Amino acid sequence: MTQRAKIDTDGSGATADMTPGTTAGTTAGTTAVVVHRPQGLTAAQVAERVARGEVNDVPVRSSRSTTDIVRANVFTRFNAIIGVLWVIMLFVAPIQDSLFGFVIIANTGIGIVQELRAKKTLDGLAVIGEARPTVRRDGAAAEISTSEIVLGDLIELGPGDKVVVDGEVAEADSLEIDESLLTGEADPVVKKPGDRMMSGSFVVAGGGAFTATKVGREAYAAQLAEEASRFTLVHSELRTGISTILKYVTWMMIPTALGLVISQLVVKDNDFKESVARTVGGIVPMIPEGLVLLTSVAFAIGVIRLGRKQCLVQELPAIEGLARVDVVCLDKTGTLTEGGMDVTELRMLNGSEEAYVRKVLGALGESDPRPNASLQAIVDAYPDSVDWRCTESLPFSSARKYSGAAFSEGDGENSTWLLGAPDVLLPAGDASLAEVDRLNEQGLRVLLLARTVHELDSPDVAKDARASALVVLEQRLRPDAADTLAYFADQNVTAKVISGDNAVSVGAVAGKLGLPGAENTVDARTLPTDRDEMAKALDEGTVFGRVTPQQKRDMVAALQSRGHTVAMTGDGVNDVLALKDADIGVSMGSGSEATRAVAQIVLLNNSFSTLPSVVGEGRRVIGNITRVATLFLTKTVYSVLLAILVVVSQVEYPFLPRHLTLLSTLTIGVPAFFLALAPNKERAKPHFVRRVMRYAIPAGVIAAAATFATYLLARHHYTGPGALDAETSAATLTLFLVSMWVLAIIARPYTWWRIALVAAMGGAFLLVLVVPWLQDFFALKLVGVTMPWTAVAIAAAGSAVLEFAWRWVGRRFPA
Asked: 300 with 112: CB under 8 angstroms?
C-alpha cells in the first residue's frame, strides 16, 4: 500500500506528500522522500503573461448590454409600423391625432429604464455571487477573480470547486472529478498528476491543484459558460405565448389594413387628409403595442424586487418557472438545516477506550484539509494528537457515504479507520443499528467510527469493519424553514425532502419543522429503478434518505415524467446533477461553485425563506400579464372586426386616432400598468395563449358588435354637416362603456384600489365629455338626448351579454 505522511517543507505549515523511499526521515518506521510543493507563478511571471494577453478574459455577463436593451426596446416590428403611421399623421392631421406616437415613445422609454435598472441589479449581484478560485502564486494561496487567471497559474481545488479553465493536474490527493456536465458520464473520474482537466467539470471528492494550459476563449467550456450566465428570455411560456399571439395579430392586421386603406381612400370620395386620418385610426388600435412593454417591465421589476432580497436570478424565466412549480425537492443539509453541526455525545461500542477513540477522531479530523460540516464539528470537538501521522486518506464521497484514513500511531502501530453512515458500514441486523435508529428518531445525526483490516483502496474496505464508537451530532435547524414549508403547503406545492443522510434522522428533522407526511420515511436504497415505479413511490412518500447523487437526478426525472414541474434546492456537489435537470435549480450562495454555476436562482443570503418571495414574484408576473393581455387583445379583436365591418358596409371608419388613443389610455394603458404590478398570489397555470384568447375573442366580438350597431343607428339619426362627428361621439361612448365593463371584469376580485382605479378612468372620460376645451381637443361632443342614451342602452345590453359570455366561457373552457 502506498503510504503518505505530511511533512512541513518550508516552515510555513504547508505539508508535502511523501512516498516510500529515502531521505527526509522516518515516521514510525516508514521512510519517506519529500516532494516539494509547487510554488506557482511569481509576480513577475504573472505580469509578463498579462502583458502578452494570456489572461482568462472571457466576458461572462449576467445581463444584456445597454446597447442590446435599447435595440430590443426600440427596434420592434410594431414600433416600425406605428412609427411610419405616426410620421404620416404628423403631416396630414392635427397633433391630437398623433398622440399615439408620443405614447409609444413614453412606453419605449419606460421599458428601457426598467430593464437598465434590472441590469444594474443583476450585474451587482453577479459580482457578489461570482466564483473566486484559489490560485497559488509565490508559494502563497489567494482567492482571485476568474478573469484574473493567467496561463500557467497553479489553481487549487477542493470538494465542490468548479474547474474554471482547462489544465493539467499538478497535485492530486484522492482527487475525483465529475465531468457529467460536459460528457454526460455520471461516474466521477479519478485524476492523477499529468491528467487533463476540462473547464466546466467540478470536484466531488479529494483535492489537489492543476496548472492552467488554456485560458480565455480557448478553454473547453468558455463559450458554454458565457452563454449559461447571460441574461436571457428564452424558454418562457409567457414570452413564447406573446410571440405566438403577435404573429397571428400580424397575419390578421395586414389584409384588414389593406382593405381599410382601399375602402377609405378609393371607395369613399372623402377629403384625402380626413380619409388618411380615419384609416390610420383603424390600423393603430390593432397593434397590442403595450403588451410586450408591460411584460418586460413586470419581469424587470421582479428582478429588482428580488435583488433587494439578495436573490440572484441568473435566468429571467426562472421567476416564471418557479411560479409554475408544483413539487419542490429540498436537500436537508444547508436547506432545512444550517451548515454547522455540534458533537453532542460520543458512545463507545465493543469495549473501546474513550481516550483512544478521541485520539482517532482528532487524527481523522486533521487528515482532511477540506472537512465537510460533519468532520468540521469533530475537528472542533477533538484536537489532533501530534504523535499520530496520516499515511493515506480517503476523502468523503456522497456516493460511498464514508471517509477513511490510515495512521502511524507514533508507537510503531498502524491502523486504518472509517468514519461514515452506520447503516452503510455495518451489516443489516447489527445490534448497534437499533441504537442508531433511536438516536435518528430524535433528529440527531449519527456517524460510526469503525476500524478496518482492509486497505483503503480495496473495494471491500468496509467489509468486517469493527465498530468502535458512535459520534452523535446535532444539526442546527434554519429558523425560517418551518414557515417556508408552511407557505408551500398553503400554496398547494408539494415538498419532498431528498437527502443523503439516514432516512429516520431526516424524517425527524422534517417532523420538527411540521412537514406533513414526515413520519413516513423511505430509504432510497429500497426504491425501484424503473422510472414509473419510482414515480409512484415518490408520489406516495415525502421524506427520502440515503439518496445517492445519481438517484437525486433519477427522482427529478421520475417526477417530471408524471407531468410535475420540479424545483430542486441544494448547496453541495451531490446536488449538481439534480439541480441541472430540474425545471428550476435553486442554490444557496454559500454552496459550492458547481451548484451556483448550474442553478437558475442563487439565494446569496443563504436564506431558504427567500423562496416564497420568488414564487410570489413569478405568480405576480404571470397572473397579471394574463389579465392585461386579455385587455390588449380584446382591443385588437374589436379593432380588426370594426375594420372588417367598415370595409364590408362601405362606410366611413367611425374613429380618428385621437378617439382610440383616449379609449386605449383610459381602458387599457393606465389600468394595465397598475394591474401588471399589483400583488397576485394565484398559482400559475399552463396554456397562456388559450387562457387569454378564450376571453379576448368573445369580449372583442361583443364590443365590436355593440359599437357598430350604435354607429349604424347614429348614421340614420344624424344628418347635416356635423353628422359624422356626432356619429363618432355616440359610437365612442358605447365602445368606452363596453371596454370599461371588460376592465371591471379583469379587475376582479375587487379591492379598494381596484375600484378606485376603475372609477378614476370613468371619471376621466366624463371630464372629457363635459369640459369644452377637452371636447374640442378630442372631437367628442354628444349631440341631442336620444342617440347618447341609445348608445348607453346598447352598451348596457352589450355588457350584460359580455358578463354572461364571460361566465359561460369560464365553465365551458376551464383553464
From this structure: no
Give pLDDT, residue 707: 94
Q: Residue 578 in contact with residue 329, Cβ under 8 Å?
A: yes
Residue 233 pLDDT: 39
CB atoms within 10 A of CB 246: 21
Report the first-to-last Cα separation within the chain, whole angstroms. 66
Q: What dihedral do alpha carbons 95, 98, 104, 105 form, nearest 10°?
A: -40
Which of the residues 153, 331, 575, 583 is marked catalytic? Answer: 331
Which of 121-130, 219-228, 311-320 shows the lowest mean pLDDT across its residues? 219-228
Residue 164, phi then psi, degrees to nearest 5: -90, -20
Query: C-alpha cell of 690?
Result: 388559450
Dig out the grid coordinates for 146 from the structure: 476568474
Q: How many CB atoms lie within 10 A of CB 298?
A: 23
The chain-wide mean pLDDT, for the chain, equals 81
For residue 742, pLDDT over 90 is answered with yes
User: What is the rounded CA–CA span in Å between residue 186 and residue 216?
Assistant: 27
Reduced to 3 states (helix: H, G, I; strand: E, B; else coil), residue 449 is strand
Encode pLDDT of 766-804 as tens digits.
999 989 989 888 888 888 889 999 999 999 999 999 999
Residue 627 grid cell: 389579465
Give Cα 152 distance to the centre of its chain: 35
Give yes or no for a contact between 408 and 28, defined as CB atoms under 8 angstroms apart: yes
Q: How far is 260 from 282, CA to CA, in rounded Å?
A: 8
Is 331 a catalytic site residue?
yes
d(C-alpha 659, C-alpha 704), whole Å: 15
Report the distance separating Cα 304 and Cα 311, nearest Å. Answer: 9
